[in-house]
Amino acid sequence: MSQHTFSPPPADKKSRNKKGKSLPPKLIIRLGKFVWTTMWQIMMSKLAPSNKSGEYIRPNSQFRNFIGTQEGNLYQPAMGRYNLMVGLGCPWAHRTLVVRALKGLEETISVTIVSPSPIEGGWVFNQEYEGCTTLAELYEQAEPGYGGRFTVPVLWDNQTKSIVNNESAEIIVMLNSEFNEFAKNPTLDLYPQELKEKIDSWNERIYTNVNNGVYRCGFAQTQEAYDKVCHELFTTLDEIDTVLNASRFLCGNSVTLADVRLFTTLFRFDAVYYGLFKCNRRRIQDYQNLGPYLRDLYQLKGVADTCDLESVKQDYYGNLFPLNPGGIIPSGPDPTFLKEPHNRENMGKEAHPV
After folding, report:
1. Which residues lie below 8 Å from residue 166, measured CB to CB, with a gap of 6+?
2. Beta bridge partners of 132
3. Cis omega before residue 116 (within 30°)?
4. How far is CA 9 from CA 71, 90, 269, in A?
5. Residue percentage of the chain with pLDDT more than 70
6. pLDDT in tens, 60-117
7. Cα 84 vs. chain centroid, distance in angstroms?
8. CB 82 within 8 A of CB 164
9. Which residues on adjacent β-strands are paired with residue 293?
10. Global pTM value
11. pLDDT (tens digit, 9 = 90+) per residue, 240-281?
12. What 3-state DSSP class applies to 62?
């Protein structure tokens, strides 16, 4: 008995053409672009609200109480009473950790780390806190019906079970001045009276054009909005670089809150903002003075311990889906450059020991 291999009859030309039909490449591209652009605009409107020009507008913080020794103030300074809630990737929260470290308040004010969750759409506690698993739940527990953003940092009062403040610019002022009796570095004043006007002036410019400027670049929803803020960002960085040619820090030869507020953006710049936020005219480490200045601040006692570049990259690249839909985390840059000599310690004659 012979064996035969069965072969199906050949398909006619009409049948082959029918099976091989697909959408024209131009139509696929146009459809994909329309769908993605529409979805991107919807997601960005939730992530980063903008004005009519497509420029990102950051909402204001809403808990604005102060710790102080004034009679009748509900929030008095005390050892162990307050807790800082921070995300390691957040530059605004990072400010509070830097001031806490410089002042030596690690034993006075505790820290709770929260992590970003793309599933929850916000910050979550690594362990349950005050019966809450998410920061949103804690906000709502502190103020039922709260309708604002659930942001870090949060300065929490363990005694009254309430949020004292969630504005980083105000929290660092309190950490600088209101806990000196408990601080290991009580004589270090990051906001001295004689420099307040100069510090405030720098803070205003740095916030608008640098701290928030990188976000205004990354979250811009029109080319015109991006071009405008990118120019403002690098004009300001260029001016700061020139100033730093003559003084160790922004306001002279002593570190101040203006330096702290600038530092947390500079620390993230080359790793995140340069690429992901399209701030790619120049890296910070390529500036003549800003690069060494960044290393100088990083190497101040206690500051490096507040810095976690891997968490920064995981936070930005892993959770800002509209900016990085693939979620791929870049391997660089190598952070060891931050430990290289900065050669700025002898600038000026009265550098403040830190």
Report:
1. 61, 62, 63, 151, 152, 153, 154, 155
2. 129
3. no
4. 97, 66, 64
5. 82
6. 667 889 999 999 999 999 999 999 999 999 999 999 999 999 999 999 999 999 999 8
7. 16
8. yes
9. none
10. 0.85
11. 999 999 999 999 999 999 999 999 999 999 999 999 999 999
12. coil
Is a pLDDT exceeding 90 seen at residue 39? no
Token output for 296: 């100088």
Considering 90, 230, 251, 307, which one is annotated as catalytic? 90
**Catalytic position from the list 191, 215, 298, 316:** 215
Give the C-alpha separation, 137 to 153, whole Å. Answer: 15
Which residues lie across from 84 on neighbouring strands? Answer: 111, 155
What is the C-alpha to C-alpha distance for residues 22 and 64, in angstroms, rounded to an integer?
59
> 157: alpha, beta or left, given left = phi > 0 and alpha = psi -120 to 50?
beta
* CA proximity to 135, closest of 119, 123, 120: 123
Whole-number Å distance between alpha carbons of 217 and 273: 9
Token pair 């929803």: residue: 221
Burial class (CB in 10 A: 0-12, 13-18, 19+), 135: buried
Q: Answer whether 195's CB lies under 8 Å from 247's CB.
A: no
The two three-digit tokens of residue 39, written as one number: 């979805």
* Catalytic (active site) residue 251: no
Place of tokens 């009679």: 71
Whether the Cβ atoms of residue 214 and residue 320 lie closer than 8 Å to each other? no
Residue 56 appears among annotated catalytic residues: no
